[in-house]
Design a protein that fits this description.
The chain is mainly beta and 284 residues long. Helix content is 5%, strand content 37%. The chain has 2 domains: 46-151, Trypsin-like serine proteases (Thrombin, subunit H), CATH 2.40.10.10; 161-261, Beta Barrel (Thrombin, subunit H). It has helices at residues 137-144, 261-266; strands at residues 30-31, 48-50, 55-60, 69-74, 89-94, 98-102, 109-122, 128-136, 149-150, 161-166, 171-186, 189-197, 211-214, 220-227, 240-242, 248-249, 255-259. A 6-stranded antiparallel beta barrel has the order 10-11-12-17-14-13.
């Protein structure tokens, strides 16, 4: 996983995540030039946050209201308490985690946001954590002039132009969605319908939890979570693809994210994650 949380829990914010190093780090606010530039649709750091060991974003669902307590999304493996086990789902757990809110350029810190609880977290079928904050969307926009990113309720299509926006590294990666992977397996976790990026998105340690943003709509369609470092088969930091027939493929140097449309569809009144019924997210 891109944050390498196995060693991160005891690390400080300065040290970063797990085996995270500065190798390959970019200047703040830079964008990789592999993807075509379109100024009208270009994505910036609006709504992006940095965690002590990962990246994240201020997000809202289709039924979220300005007066609702705001939400921050990152990966399940970015939890301050450590990585959830396979099959584990965490809901409504108290948290006081803080997040650094960036300005649109990614060069300046606007302020600190604070969680009151973990609304939802898992590494089963997907890799996501949703934190509930102590401030509303309206209060954050009033104080910092920053709106939340919108979660798309639609599945992203192959070939969609995307940006992976890292608050930790203050870097934007540009590429396209290559395809949807039936199953992605890494160590003890399996994820469904993962997004495989084209090779231009060479995300690194610390980019875990970055939103995957559709360049046309500017809506969030996924959350960045892993890549195959060493060409190993289905081991930690070396995910493998498993097709419908059980065939395993290893793609060294390729990176992945998890779709978020299911999460968007599960957000109900007061920004609660409503499990069961039409919500297909795993339940505790």
């Amino acid at each position: 996983m891109t944050a390498r949380l196995a060693a991160a829990i005891a690390m400080t914010a300065v040290a970063g995540a797990g085996t995270l190093t500065a190798t390959g780090a970019a200047q703040a606010g830079t964008v990789q030039q592999h993807a075509p530039q379109n100024r009208k649709a270009e994505v910036d750091f609006t709504g992006i946050v940095a965690l002590s060991n990962c990246s994240g974003s201020l997000v809202r669902g289709p039924r979220s209201r300005d007066g609702d307590a705001a939400l921050v999304m990152t990966n399940g493996h970015c939890l301050e308490s450590g990585m959830p086990e396979g099959g584990e789902v965490i809901v409504d757990k108290e948290s006081s985690r803080t997040f650094t809110l960036l300005d649109r350029t990614g060069e300046n810190d606007l302020g600190t946001l604070r969680a009151t609880r973990i609304e939802y977290a898992t590494m089963t079928d997907t890799d996501v954590t949703l934190y509930r904050l102590d401030a509303t969307y309206a209060a954050i926009q009033r104080r910092y002039g920053v709106p939340a990113l919108r979660l798309s309720t639609a599945r992203p299509h192959d070939g969609t132009g995307i940006r992976v926006v890292s608050g930790y590294w203050r870097k934007i990666y540009g590429c396209k969605i290559d395809t949807t992977v039936h199953r992605l397996r890494e160590a003890g976790w399996t994820w469904k319908d993962s997004i495989r990026y084209t090779p231009e998105c060479e995300t690194i340690h610390g980019t875990s939890g970055s939103p995957v943003v559709d360049v046309r709509t500017r809506h969030v369609v996924g959350v960045n979570n892993t890549g195959n470092d060493d060409g190993e088969r289905c081991t930690l930091n070396n995910p493998c693809e498993v097709d419908r027939d059980g065939n395993v493929t290893v793609r060294r140097g390729i990176h992945y994210g998890q779709q978020t449309y299911l999460l968007a569809r599960c957000l109900g009144e007061d920004n609660d994650v409503v499990l069961g019924g039409a919500c297909a997210l795993p339940r505790p």
